[in-house]
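Weekly modeling sync, notes
Attendees: AB, CL, MP (scribe)

Item 1: holo prediction request
CL wants a bound-state model with fe (ii) ion before deciding which constructs to order. AB pointed out that an apo prediction alone won't tell us much about the pocket. Agreed to run with the ligand included and paste results into these notes for async review.

Input as submitted:
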Amino acid sequence: MYFKQILNERCGCASYLIASRQSREAAIVDPSLDTEQYVALLQERDFHLRYVIDTHVHADHISGARQLAAGQGGELCLHAAAQVVYPFRPLCDGEELPLGQLRLRVMHTPGHRPELISILVVNPPRSPEPSMVLTGDSLLVGDVGRPDFGGGDAAAQWQSITRLLQLPDWVAVFPGHFEGPCGKGMCGRPSTTVGFERLYNPLTRLDRGSFVSALTSGQPARPLNMTAIEATNRGVADMPWAMLTSAPPVPEISVDAVESRPPGTMLLDVREPEEYAHGHIPGAVNLPQSDLASRCNDLPQDHPVWIVCQAGLRSRRAAQYLKQMGFEQVVSVQGGTSAWQSAGKPLAVGETRVAGRRVIESEWTHAGAPQE
Ligand SMILES: [Fe+2]
């Protein structure tokens, strides 16, 4: 067999090429939009593509699966529950995809998303047992996938993780993310084993109730442009430009300057509605970063747009994204609403307090690696 893990440092995602050296057939799992790298690998190794599998509809990065399947002739596969509008081969729990002497066994492991599957890799000439499992965003290294990316369910995630942990200790685990916004406490290693996670993953030793409250009590903000990315991956929109792919310099200004902003400046608060309702800089308009790409037509190109968040991380990414989209007059407010509050300035409170989950600060609230 041939197996390669391909790490995408920009969005913290892992994709995989699995092939049979005997039949030269290959499967690619969770490809990123940078599909040339897979095509080069197929050519170099003289493999032909039989399957392209998305473990789920991604919400934090745009998938290259359709492009790859169309260009290389592989069968595009997703779980049968995937709510996409393009044709695909629907997979079911327990189904096996032959790949030369190998078998790719589908395990339905919903929780992060309803259609999420894990893929057990079995090599019968070596063993009747699987030697590895690709877990998408179910079991992560030191973490599990968050349940708030569209149709997710923390209790279903508990059940899926419990099921995965019934696999033998030695089974190697290859997740869909090694960093990034899909979890809140990933270890950073790109692989692990079932035995190690059963013993040392802080979530896998919790009972169902504690697991569910750990998953629902506090999560990082939804990623930058999630709405546009998810819609593109479902085929209901075509916004391949919704990823932050550059790091243009953006000016940063202090909270003191916010008070004397030029007339006509839009002060844009890119935090979640819950955070905004709890307290925001007076005059700030709320547009969560998750909706930025889908609503950037609502923003003025001919006036300054000053962006603020909680601590200054999300606002910098959002400003970079708008710069990438051609907005010239964008700035990021350094230190965000926290700095405003620490300077003793008053906050405005939303008329209706939005009850909901607690949003925790994370450097990984965007589909783009942290860079200075
Ligand atoms: Fe995901």
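Recorded for review: Residues 56, 58-60, 112, 137, 145, 149, 182 surround fe (ii) ion (CB under 6 Å).
Action items: CL to compare against the apo run; MP to circulate these notes.
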